[in-house]
Amino acid sequence: MNKRSLSKLLALLFAFALVAAACGGSSDADGETTDTTAGETETDTDEPIAAGEEAEGDVDTEVEEIEGERSYGGSIAVGLEAEAVGLRPWEDTCSSPCYNMMITVFDKLTDQALDGTYQPYLFETLEANEDFTEWVGVLRSGVTFHNGVELTAQSIADMFPIQQEGAAGAGGLSAANIIDVQATGDLEVTYTLSQSNSALPATLARAPVGMVFEAGAAAADPDGSANEPVGTGPFMIESRDLDNETIVVRNDNYWGVDPEGNQLPFLDQISFRPIPDEGTRLDALLSGTVDVFQTLRQGTIRDGRAARDGGEDIVMVEFQGNNVGGGMFNVLVPPFDDVRVRRGLTQMNSQENVIEALGGTGISLPGTQWFSPDSPWYSEKVAAAWPSFDFEAGSATLQEYIDDPERSDGKAPGESIEVELSCPPDPSLIAAMQVLEQTWTASGVVDVNLTNYDQQTHINYALGAENGFVGEHGAHCWRFSSDSDPASDINPGFAPPTAEIAEAAGIPDVVSPLNFANYFDGEVFGAAVAALQTDDFDERYALYESIMLKIAEDVPIWYSGHTATAFGTNPAVMGLTGWHLPSGDIGIGIPAVEGRWHEVWLSN
Amino acid sequence: MTALDAQTDSISITDDDAPAERQGSTPIERPKRATPLQVFREMPIVIKLSTIWLLLVFGGAIYAKIDTVLLNDALPLQNPNLQTNNFNPATGEFGDGEPNESWSSAHWLGTDTIARDTFARIVHGAWVSLIIAMVSAGFGVVVGGFFGSLVGFVRGRTETVTMAAMDVILAFPALILLLAMVSIFEVRSLTVIALVIGFLSIPAYTRVARAGSLAVSQREFVLAARAIGTKPMKILFREVIPNVLPTVLSYAMVAGAFVIVVEGSLSFLGLSVQLPTATWGNMINQARGNLKVNFAQVFWPSMALVLTVLSLNSVGDWLQKRAAHRGSAL
Question: pLDDT digit string (tens) for A268-289?
């Protein structure tokens, strides 16, 4: 045998040896996982859960006062799931990773307390007139921007025209009905609204309208502001190397103090690093490359927990928010324009199996509405009304449509329904969509075509800017809701999706491209508008409950499970959760794994 | 008979019709064609192992297809798409299978994230690799082989134009071009993917065949055939192509390995055949999110891919050497 043949033989033998090694090695690993999974599936979801109570079977949100001596100094590295294209609140659409960076540079006018209510932040007070069409806020004094400019009411008024022109800001202003912002005193700002909006404080707690930037710097260099934004926040941009690292350093002139009177922030520096792959991000924490990593994936939370329970020295800071996964039917497109099809398919959605495919067993509970059981907005009535898994009933409902000579898809009675189910190409979503595909196909009356497009294409298909916002989607994976005020998601989500529908409804000026399911119902929209005309919780609760009940009846969307999110941290990193508002009250924690970094410190 | 005729006949080892008495007073004994078993015995051990693996993959793929298409899953191989923990309308209950199960007698290589049998998916996944490799080889050998042989033989403007066209296709990065073509076709059926990859394989085969044809066209027996006025097309099909073919066929093995990897890449990117059809690439892609929980589910399809590619390369190399050896004997 010559050398070359010998080397090939060795290569083959090595390959076969690897096979043998895998046979031996997989047994233990798999066995452990199976045991864990089996234990965690024992969740009785038939038991009603009271609103606002900590539910069993999902992650426990622990937002509480953190004990311990605060210390100054040190730096941390944070692994984020993506890079932020830009850091301009008025221009750049911001998701969780970007928000983590922006919040270090910009303060917001309001923020959310642990009970979900909104409190002033850069504002000291914020009050509305009787019909919520005019809001007056008074800024706190002695605040300066990073470039030394003093924060005044005029600073907020000067932001308005820039926000009006901004891609993100314009949408935010419009959704909040804001038509004018004036400085009515040195520190007094008046917002004028076109219609009532009792949820304006929620708008002022989000990036596009609520984050305060120095308008002079933004106007002088709009493009440069994407990488060198100027705010009043606890940190200032030091350097920004796109797709590699963004470094922020301590703002020594920061106005904030914690309830003990300690000057904020504690850290000298934070380095944000985009690490798109979930496994790599967790590994980065385990190897010490980063001190904190974020995840919105249940499977990664599971892996992080397993690493921690396996002896790795990490802490999982978990948060069960209102965000819920699932998908939507494009109700303007046959056969989804018929409620029988939507209901039938929803009844054949085995949520437990979908959650298991997503890696969320023991981490997420099946969704029945836009609010998680931990939320004060959660409704047991809605949970009971939601069409749960019933294969026979689902098949029968579909059969009714199939046998209908007037069926909307134009096919002959008896022919199968064609469903295009599309999800972004994430492995866990691919697994989840195949679970749905098997159950739907098993009915024998549905032909499912599975497609995956990258995230941006997936969103564009649902947006449908090129076909009057009808969209090019059928059954489309999606996430719904957030921990903001319900109005933030519900009002744009159920407003008329097209100009034709708005006109037919007698509200030609109200069109929302963010109604991706294209579901419009006069009652639902009416209730959503009414909920903006009062700040009484009970009244609003009843209105949102009525909306969710109608959704359970018309099923334009389906659910998998509520989305759990988490930061995995080095145990030395303290104070990520349990941060405070200026009033001294504890803040909401880390919804959508958006941290507040001003009270983070490193323990000894 | 002229001396030239005698030479042409004696070196044309593929010509079975030449009577022995035409060889003159000392007839040359024609080499006997080796049987497959003899060829197998000739192989070094590593090539034997590779061949056995390829036969297993080929046999498994055919077996799986027959089971699904002709016998309605009657053979003892599980349905590759059956989620053993999902609702079963026949029983009216959820199955008792477990996701990410370890290997067992019920599931030889365990189960994946949604409790499907991994062994069945690997065997069925072989079908996709097999079809892709065979279609691309078919396209390459037939179309590329013919064009390469033709332009290497006739030369001139035909060669210039053909090779320029091939160079244009080759100039595109193959994977990018594939992504674009798959996106344009949108329907991700096995036929479309195979045809696209087959089309992109043509230039490489054309180059290999042209190189062979250029050499063969200058050989004495071809010159002799020209000299006695044999029609060019007859020379092409009787003298050139038969001598170029062994090289092209052995190249097909190596190229087959390459296209299997390309298909794996497409699958990994979610751009190959429609889900839930199993391919080794999409099995790896779907299991990568679960790497820490169930490494075996990435490992098994990866090994199938590695072993198949390694085997095709080994056997292809060996056949190329064998073809070169035979060619030098002409």
Answer: 999 999 998 888 999 999 999 9
The CATH code of the domain at A322-563 is 3.10.105.10
Domain that holds residue B271: 117-328
Which architecture does CATH list for A75-80+82-274+572-602?
3-Layer(aba) Sandwich (3.40)
Residue entry with tokens 């199968």: A416
Instruction: Give the C-alpha separation, A153 to A182, whole Å.
Output: 8
In sequence order, the 6+-apart residues with CB closer than 8 A to the CB of A256 are: A234, A263, A264, A265, A582, A598
Q: How many domains does chain B have?
A: 1
Q: CA triplet A362, A368, A372: central angle to 5 degrees?
A: 60
> For residue B68, is it within any domain?
no
The CATH number of whichever domain residue B279 belongs to comes to 1.10.3720.10
B114 contacts on A by Cβ (under 8 Å): 353, 356-357, 431, 434-435
Q: Is B106 on the interface with A (CB under 8 A)?
A: no
Give the largest Cα separation in chain B, rounded. Answer: 84
Within 49-78 of B, beta carbons closer than 8 Å to A belong to 49-50
Is B159 inside a domain boundary? yes
Residue A379 CB-half CA count within 13 A: 21
Q: Within a domain: residue B279? A: yes
Q: Over 50: is that where the pLDDT of A499 sits?
A: yes
Confidence category of residue B200, pLDDT binned at 50, 70, 90: confident
User: B295 and chain A: CB distance < 8 Å anywhere?
Assistant: yes
8 Å CB contact of B83 and A31: no
Averaged pLDDT of chain A: 89
B239 occurs within a structural domain: yes
Residue B189: the pLDDT is 76
